[in-house]
Design goal:
The complex is a heterodimer of chains A (111) and B (112). Chain A is mainly β. Chain A has no helices and nine strands. Helices cover 0% and strands 47% of the residues of chain A. Chain B has 112 residues and is an all-beta fold. Chain B starts with a strand and ends with a strand. In chain B, strands 2, 4, 5, 6, 9, 10 and 11 form a seven-stranded mixed sheet that branches. A four-stranded antiparallel sheet of chain B has the order 1-3-8-7, with no helix packed on it. The chains are: A mainly beta (111), B mainly beta (112). The interface between A and B is medium-sized, with 26 and 30 residues.
Chain lengths: 111, 112
């Protein structure tokens, strides 16, 4: 089973910040939080990852709570091209193991 | 770099037929994965291989077999296809020292 839970779907107005939550209450101390997204039927695309500090890159920001039991992916200025399914997963870095994706959140960007 | 390459991209099978989906990566990755994705659903892990010569079951392994032929190639075989195996199949690879999982373009399989 996936170690994360996410809302099934969310809407966001174009130009606004999209905040996608993820719960990972059983996360271990050495597990990272990763976010991927899948546009249409393409293969998923990496967005960002983090351990306990907040992270930012050219695509998004990742906010991880202090207890690490939940996180939020932020797309600062959502565009129509951000319409996709967003997956939050937890994974131990530097270890080859199975990666379970779960059902993800379907984000609809509204014009 | 081609990344992760899957073949075929599209296939129609009759119930009971067998076929093999091929996957190859040119990034020298240790780990390789096969996922299936049904319409409107998330990705479900079928099998994975942490290194050459090893394979392990994922969430939905029944009806499938895999072979990690060498470090580059990881194939998925349907011995006797069933309509319930109609899906989009994604191969992926990852390296233990990197963060990113790389996905292939997907293989659309229809079993009639």
């Amino acid at each position: 089973d996936a170690k994360t839970t996410q809302p099934t779907s969310m809407d966001c107005a174009e130009g606004r910040a999209a905040n996608l939550p993820c719960n990972h209450s059983t996360i271990s101390g050495n597990e990272y939080v990763y976010w991927y997204r899948q546009i249409h039927s393409q293969g998923p695309q990496y967005i960002i990852h983090g351990l306990k500090n907040n992270e930012t890159n050219e695509m998004a920001s990742l906010i991880i709570t202090e207890d690490r039991k939940s996180s939020t992916l932020i797309l600062p200025h959502a565009t129509l091209r951000d319409t996709a399914v967003y997956y939050c997963i937890v994974r131990v870095m530097n270890r080859d193991d199975k990666i379970i994706f779960g059902k993800g959140t379907r984000l609809h960007i509204l014009p | 770099n081609a990344g992760v390459t899957q073949t075929p991209k599209f296939q129609v099978l009759k119930t009971g037929q067998s076929m093999t989906l091929q996957c190859a990566q040119d990034m020298n990755h240790n780990s390789m994965y096969w996922y299936r994705q049904d319409p409107g659903m998330g990705l479900r892990l079928i099998y994975y291989s942490a290194s050459e010569g090893t394979t392990d079951k994922g969430e939905v392994p029944n009806g499938y077999n895999v072979s990690r032929l060498n470090k580059r190639e990881f194939s998925l075989r349907l011995e006797s296809a069933a309509p319930s195996q109609t899906s989009v199949y994604f191969c992926a690879s990852a390296r233990d020292t990197e963060n990113t999982i790389y996905f292939g373009e997907g293989s659309w399989l229809t079993v009639v």
